[in-house]
Write a structure and sequence with these properties.
- Helix 1 packs across helix 3 and helix 1 packs across helix 9.
- It contains nine helices and nine strands.
- The protein has a five-stranded parallel sheet with strand order 2-5-8-1-9, covered by helices on one side. A two-stranded antiparallel ribbon has the order 3-4. A two-stranded antiparallel ribbon has the order 6-7.
- The protein is an alpha/beta fold.
- The longest helix has 27 residues.
- Strand 6 and strand 7 form a beta hairpin.
Length: 233
């Protein structure tokens, strides 16, 4: 009984913290509450999200804001046809400092806690596959060595649904790594007006940190302990 009460108390506290985080995000990512809810749900479940929407709808702004609010180390990769796996994972270079020659590993941008894979479908299948192990196992294998990624580790990828020229469709194995696909719709006229007012003044709304990396890991643990009714399953 004591454990149940403690779990309920943690869930209530998490709900309050999550509400504060959503409010902070929605001040900068206006009129897309459903998108914010789905992305946060994916992260709280320990998963990744694929954001599908036209350019200019604020997908990059959302990821930047999430990194700040959730207290995560965030990196961004702009996927292009000439991007190589080493540009994502990192590589070993020969270091001849102090008179000794040895290989030194230089980490790629994937070594973070929140990775934005911008226009992921513009990279070749070979480069896209560099994310497969990272998204599933939270580690990468380079030169035969297993290297752990940050904890937590989440990938938020973006994709333009209109342009097909110069793109490579994501294979099923890659799509399966994403917990949710979130369609970012064009805002309404009223929302556009709110965005105009909020972003053209002397001061723009700033995001503030609500979570920490450790707090997000704890939230994920609490969610895994929540009971689920048989009808839901």
């Amino acid at each position: 009984m004591a454990d149940t009460k403690a779990l309920v108390a943690e869930i209530e506290a998490l709900g309050a913290t999550l509400g504060e985080a959503k409010a902070s995000i929605n001040r900068r990512f206006i009129g897309q509450e459903k998108v914010v809810d789905l992305v946060l749900a994916a992260m709280l479940c320990g998963g990744h999200a694929l954001l599908v929407g036209l350019p200019g709808l604020g997908k990059t702004r959302l990821v930047d804001t999430l990194g700040t609010v959730m207290g995560l180390k965030a990196n961004r990769i702009q996927f292009t046809p000439d991007l190589m796996p080493a540009d994502i994972l990192g590589s070993e270079v020969l270091d001849s400092g102090d008179g000794a020659r040895a290989f030194r590993f230089i980490e790629g941008p994937i070594f973070c806690q929140l990775l934005m894979a911008d226009e992921i479908n513009r990279a070749s299948p070979r480069t896209q596959s560099a994310l497969l192990q990272a998204m599933q196992e939270k580690e990468v294998t380079i030169a035969g060595q297993h290297r752990a990624l940050g904890r937590p580790f989440h990938v938020l990828a973006t994709q333009n649904p209109i342009e097909q020229e110069g793109t490579y469709p994501l294979p099923e194995a890659q799509l399966d790594r994403f917990l949710v696909q979130v369609d970012v719709e064009y805002p309404t006229r009223a929302t556009e007006r709110d965005i105009l007012i909020a972003t053209t003044g002397a001061e723009e709304a700033e995001a503030h940190q609500v979570f920490t990396a450790e707090g997000l890991l704890r939230a994920q643990s609490v969610i895994r302990q929540m009971p689920v009714g048989e009808q839901v399953v």
